[in-house]
Request: fold
Amino acid sequence: MSRSAQRCLVEWTGLAITPAAIAMAEHAIELALGRDRLRQRSLCVLVVDDAESARLHGEHFADPTPTDVMSFPDGALDPASGLTRLGDLAVCLDVARRVAGKRDRPVEEELALYVLHGALHLLGHDDVEDADREAMWAVQRAVMGKMGITID
Reply:
């Protein structure tokens, strides 16, 4: 996809993941933004291990256990780029590896789901109430389905 056609510029930091995982996750973000016809966005994805996930989860959410993904919304306009910063995500590679193994699917698909889930939170979706969770998961199923991936 050309830079001008991108809906979202994604900065990756932290632990290294495969180019295939990055491409799959970025494709999920592009599809999610396309649903709402959003453009000119950016976000940062920090890939962490269990220890860093637990530290961040404890510091920001008062639960010192590792989790799949945490979202930190922003919404500010970056004057240098002209892009609206959706926010930051912290995605746990160790959790993705364990869960992917249990679900018998590639870790790249699990990471893409986590990034999509976090991005949807940054876009205003919530999963606290049952109805909101069902709506959010319907979006996730639709986006991942467009990528040929079935999720539960």
Observations:
- The helical segments are 19-35, 50-61, 93-103, 107-122, 130-146.
- The chain has a mean pLDDT of 93.
